[in-house]
């Protein structure tokens, strides 16, 4: 072992010198490259589906709805080109008036004709209202129906898949598809379909009308269109690519934030805040550069398009004027042709979002359809396949079974050449009603046996049988309903405790009224049964102490409960089922000795009359089993009773016993002394002095929360503060405002030229005048190009700078918070990542973006009104009254282009949460067979969204219809009123055109603005939340540099410490606790679950500060030290070891100092891994130390994760080592080796160890028994045993009780905790 610590290899070990390790690392990069290529090839295997395939799951009724919607869209699309005919007719009527302006009769006739045409505008508006409503409403209903069906089918298929398939997939990616890909499909089959049909109809009818009224002019205008389309497409492509890069980088940043926040205790314990902040900022910088690039090209694209449009105006009117001079066309024909062509061309541009949505949906569909279409080899949802045993007894047997995992990391197993199968020629028989224990080292095949019984996998050869039925012939859903399962890693769901226990309800065959056949239905569990199951699992007492008792809502994975509490609830969930077969995979691993004894008795009682299969490392929990089988390398090497196996000299079971039987003779001598009645006074025992607990009545957290004054949604001065964040970008904001002003004035200014050109053609039609106005069109186009570029590029840059700053500072603000902040419900992982992802981005809507929008709006309004009122104030006054309606109309039309269903992802968030929880905990969901529960919950959430969506569809249809009607009505009113003023000689025609077009063009541009302007209200709320986060002062801030950095020796003491968790201020945890440990000593904390042991470790780490009393390091209050300095000298190993989704090397290196730049060598990593007994299994992984361990280390077993976590703690060579059940997930052999390593690592350093297995702490210099938040006993192992009826002695008795014979009892008692 000395060689292992020094990092040298022994002959028996594989050569893992640093050089070879680096070599592996080098070649692993090529492997990673191969994986990337494989991923790319995988994408190529999913070519986009045909468009019609997007509707493959539509019902007949939905297809009829879609046909009606498309017909309405065709009619709707033809209306706008028809409008140009009416518009041209009105101009021709005014041409007659212009030819003889002195004739009152002609003016009267013109007024009548204009009024008649205006009525047709209203007719068009009415038709547009009806067709718009139908096309939007019907198609949205169709899309929502198909989307809901896809979501349900996709989720159902996910839950029906087998474990082999899941081993190849990324669970997070699978749930992202249901949240992301199905939304993309919905976006491609919703109102975008009818929008595309409408715009196609508009294009066809527009081109036809243009060629009818002016074929040559049409060809001239169309010759320019390709340039506009090509230029716009190029810029759009570059901007879209940049947008994709930015989204990908933000996604990566979000992944970093999610992982870091979910592992915040590890990050905090190892001072990783700065490292993680920099890692996050690297991704933010990538997103910043990509999005700035997008803004620049967006500005160029918009500017280029506007310039070409204005140039097209110039060319069209110049050519058209020549045609009028030649008598080939009238002025009205010019306008009809011109606007018909432009409507046709614009319809192509307006349809681009639709076709883009189609392409995205066609690309997303194959990934979704692949899952939906996949037939699972082992389908737990299929009620038709397989038999149901009529009178199932519970016999289980394995006959000559060979098995190996198809997709797995080679962990504690030999290479494939050494051993082909995980289970090889495996035979086992478990008769009805007997209890059978499986024991052996980690990786020997115990858990595999259980997985085959539950039919997670099928055997390669041989058979697994239930009552002589091959499990492959049985119905999977029924099979699993006969099994109650409690796993080593207890998993609960984000529901109440009552609902979590009720998930264990059994399935019963009942008659289906619809089909008349028998189906399996979940039995309703009564409250009495839930309470009874909780009592059997020793969970009732702690549940009743919770504020809401059985209705207490648990967090993600049951995060609000301790490990032991979670395991007891899981046991209750298994017992409430009353199963034929009970499987216990380390079912009491997380319990303290007393709870384990009580629960073990309950489990043994529950096992009576049913087949029980137990996997255990604590051999005391299986010694009463009817049969114990020892598995080694996939083969049963011994079977028999506890007594029989102990009698085999040198046997495998006896060897395991001896590994757990630590210093038996020494403990036996201590016991004999106690039996001789040695005076209790001789024992140097530190009895804790009872401290009075405050009797003041504390209000419940809920009451306190209710009494807190509600915070305002928006803080005062938020706008000014947002500008201060962006003040360094003032020049870019100023340039953006200038650009927006130019951009906003361009269209109203164009109204002057438009009216003058029309008037010139009507009156004189001189070439010189027409050329002059054409050049002014080009000049305005140049101004529009410059304005668009400056607005989008400059404000885009300033906005991205603000987003970068806020995301960066907000993430750092989160990282510096104390643990109490993360314990609050409102600061859940989802809430914090959302705050970073969406709210930080939304804040830029308060500064540059909004200033640009305001400048654009003010410029548009002022220019338009100025032109209108100077030209003809009477017409301007009338049009002003309806001006807001023009802006609203245009805004709603642009909303149609982006899609009324664009926020579907937000609305489906609740359903997505259900899907994520089920897939993330797939093993537990499958083990207890609750797929139907999650499917029903998911369906309910989707149906809620569908009901709301149908209302949204109706409102959207009405709103869009109104916008179309308003647009037509505005032109009707404007021209009709204007004709009256012209008739009364109160306004000239040219001035009428200026007034109408100036205001209506301005209104259209404001409508564009309304669709793109940031949501002011949301931006203010987002800014308030972000700034409140930035302002929150952490009570324990690691970013504050404190000068007090005295050398730490390792002395630690707590004096009369009282503490309550901030999230549960009404529940006292520590009540006057006092304890001390000297430099180099080992202090063990023992006691029941929930007594406050882990809280002591949390206070030493300074995750929290005590409410009263003191915590001191080397005699100085811990609050006086620099918090990073204190944590730098501590190493922590928690009960539930969490690793980062990085390589094994990176996870171990995380324990090293993150600040001083100490070089990380392979020798340091390997030495720590050897000390933690992790080196051998790491070397056998596919890529050794470069193997990525998966999210939270899920690609490793529980024991492997714990060993890597121990290596992470040891690599930093801490002065104080904090071990919270550091060996709880290890088998006896690994525990002994690692415990020796920990004991060796503890030499010369202070160690505080929490343990339920008393054998791991009996050599401690002092053992402190924690009960009711105080130290009730303290002393050495031998001393504490002498106290008659003492707390520690009772803990020992609880772990030693249950021996069947006196000699065996003596052996167990001598071990003093060896058989926990």
Structural class comes to: alpha/beta
The largest sheet is:
7 strands, mixed
In what order do the strands lie side by side in the largest sheet?
13-23-22-16-21-20-19
Number of DSSP E strands: 23
Stretches where pLDDT is under 50 for at least 5 consecutive residues are: 1-44, 408-419, 662-710, 893-905, 1010-1014, 1298-1316
Proportion of residues in extended strands: 5-15%
Contiguous helical run count? 45
Note the gap between the termini.
Answer: 26 Å
Gross geometry: elongated
Question: How helical, in percent, are the residues?
Answer: 55-70%
* Rg, Å, rounded: 38 Å
Mean pLDDT: 75
Protein name: Probable ATP-dependent transporter ycf16
Domain ABC transmembrane type-1: 67-359, 734-1018
Subcellular location: Cell membrane
GO cellular component, one term: plasma membrane
Description:
It is elongated, with a radius of gyration of 38 Å. The chain contains 45 helices and 23 strands. Strand 7 and strand 8 form a beta hairpin. With 1316 residues, the protein is of the alpha/beta class. Mean pLDDT is 75; it is low at 1-44, 408-419, 662-710, 893-905, 1010-1014 and 1298-1316.
List keywords for this structure.
1316 residues; alpha/beta; 7-stranded mixed β-sheet; 6-stranded mixed β-sheet; elongated; disordered N terminus; disordered C terminus; ABC-type oligopeptide transporter activity; transport; transmembrane helix; Type_1_exporter
